[in-house]
Amino acid sequence: MSSNLCRVSGKPLVTVLDFGMQPLGNGFLSRSSLSEEYFYSMSVGFNNESMMLQLVHQPDPEKMFHDQYAFYSSTSNYMSRHFADFFDQVIKSDYLFGDDPFVVELGCNDGIMLKNFSKKGIRHLGIEPSINVAKIANYNGVRTVSEFFSEKLARKILEEDGMVDVFLAANVMCHIPDIMGVVKGIKCLIKPKGVVIFEDPYLGDIVSKVSYDQIYDEHVFFFSALSVRNLFSLVDMDLIDAIPQQTHGGSMRYVIAHKGAYPISDAVEKLIDDEKAMGLDQIETFVKFADNVKKSKEDLVELLTKLKRENKKVVGYGATSKSTTILNYCDIDARLIQYICDTTPIKQGKLSPGKHIPIVSYEKFKEDSVDYAFLFAWNHSQEIMNKEHDFISHGGKWITHVPGVRVV
Ligand code: TYD
After folding, report:
1. Which stretches in the chain have pLDDT values below 70?
2. What are the angstrom distances between the C-alpha of 337 and each of 308, 316, 350, 373?
3. Ligand 1 centroid vs 377 CA: distance in angstroms?
4. pTM of the complete model beyond 0.90
5. Is 246 helix (H, G, I), strand (E, B) or coil?
6. Residue nearest to atom 4 of ligand 1 (CA)
7. How far is residue 314's CA from residue 220's CA, in Å, rounded to a whole number?
């Protein structure tokens, strides 16, 4: 377990929620590797100086991101469209300078966003430590480097490619234990008028929706505008804009620039006021959140136990990393949820981390007669509802846990 998780403040973290022993969120495994399964103690703490909610410990990154890493961004059409829109926003912005702008993306995954820049002939570089997904990005025409980002790698990029106009990251910054190393690397890489644009699941949504399933080994930090502003102020950078996003069940896109390079938008000022009103700078808010999480667990176990007594067939929809936290924290196994269907080939035929529920193909779900499907991929609910008319017309019902446990 990693003891060098970055503390943005020198003050200690106060643990607010303890999940006990958890497997890796994305640790889908085959029967033959059951005996090697890895568990670690998962808890989250808050620091009222940095205003950061974060994991207290984390497994070593090498255990999490490797050549079998089972996450491919392009499995969702909605996400593909989202990143095409993200690309459009960057192209239309005033942040790309001169004839030969340079765009870097941290954690480019299978190239879902950078392929758009590649197609337009814009100079780019994707940083992707998982070799299997980086290979797919290459295949998609994206230039990649397969390393963890650090100040050292930033200096190497600077030497080989020069300064960066736009530094992008989507659902990546919150994954990085040494966040200060990343922030310092960014600081030395971007042009005087360059920007960082990154988005991650938003703490305000996690608290208001009780979406505690966003908490798993890969999500080290749960950002708010308050904590992001504080983090970048440590390297003399300003949070200049913040734009809410629908993705991942509620995310925030942050725009950051060198201090004084741009005015700070009204949206940032308003968001900071809203966060203070919501108490995102107060530990009491997270103590209350922890109570809501425990209640969510009780309600879910009660509902699934009742459905089991009634002999209903209950399955899971979407073998998300998030589902690992729900299943292990609530102690739900194949007796309560028979299988989980997922469209990702690398997950099919495997078992869910910790609780070993079989992951099956989407086709199996389509052919089966299911009474209830737990929507683990609730962050894609719009896309899923649009295609699951048959399930509903045959009497199927959805179970969700956000913002409260209920049947829909
Ligand atoms: P994702 O949204 O990335 O969540 P997490 O970050 O928690 O892993 O994962 C969505 C999962 O759901 C992914 O494995 C693909 C699957 N999925 C389906 O099976 N069917 C669908 O229609 C959609 C949109 C996703």
Report:
1. 1-5, 61-75
2. 9, 6, 15, 9
3. 5
4. yes
5. coil
6. 320
7. 31
